[in-house]
Amino acid sequence: MFVKVPISAALLTPLRNAYYLSFPVVLGAVLSNRMAARLSDVVPVHWATPIVLALVVWMIYTIDRLLDVQKVTPASSSSRLTPRHAFHRQHATDLWRGVLAAALLALILCFFLPGSVIRFGLALGAVCAGYVFMVFRLPNRHSALLLKEPLVAVLFSAGVWGSVWVQRPTVSGVEITQALMFTVIAFQNLILFSVMEQWERPEQPQFSLATAWGLERSITLLGWLTLGVVSTGLTLCFITSDRFAQRASLMLAIMSLVLYVIQRFPAYFLRNERYRWLGDGVFWLPALVL
To answer: Where are the transmembrane segments (predicted)?
Structure first.
């Protein structure tokens, strides 16, 4: 006679912690950056670029959440904090130390980067610092916070693609179009998460574009974004003869379609926050064409 033993929670802890620490997003940024680098083989991309990108992406996401939990009063923390934010509050001291260590390592690696990347990084870093400061200083439901989703999508995409472009003598129209597709996918990802959070916690939805526009309009927007990315990806396959560019265009279209599927079946993907795992996991898909 066999007894069914449930999987120990301890076995899931490392994986869950990696998810809370935004490691899937960081890995997705690195893989997407590698795809952007392969679209043009004029000059090899510097080896330190993806490492610094990973460190910076992790620091931005971590600092953003650490500042978020500081704005929540202890009396209301149990009802307002998501599991990920609760994790950041519980380990705030260690995470701040990790941020300082990551910043120091990124600073050291900057001495190995080309000057063009350093200048680009300083400019983008200043914008990111301004964004984090704005989010922390503004009240929770300030209208300026509605810019969060599009701004994060643009900054994330700029880091992934811009760090490659500044090391290139020229950038093709196909690359620019694919970067715009990637930006739309990043925006689609954030809007999707806002919609799913409303379904997940209808009594206390996070203030976002999705709450401001309403679920019906947000869902319609997700459909149009998917249509735009897929149609653009298919069009690029016919107007470029570069085989890797064709594969990258199809992969970007698939990434958008995966996000659309998540939105179409909320009951399934809301369980155990599956939408977050797969939604962040779409940025791993470029690995399939590398």
So the answer is: 42-61, 95-114, 120-138, 150-167, 179-199, 219-241, 247-270
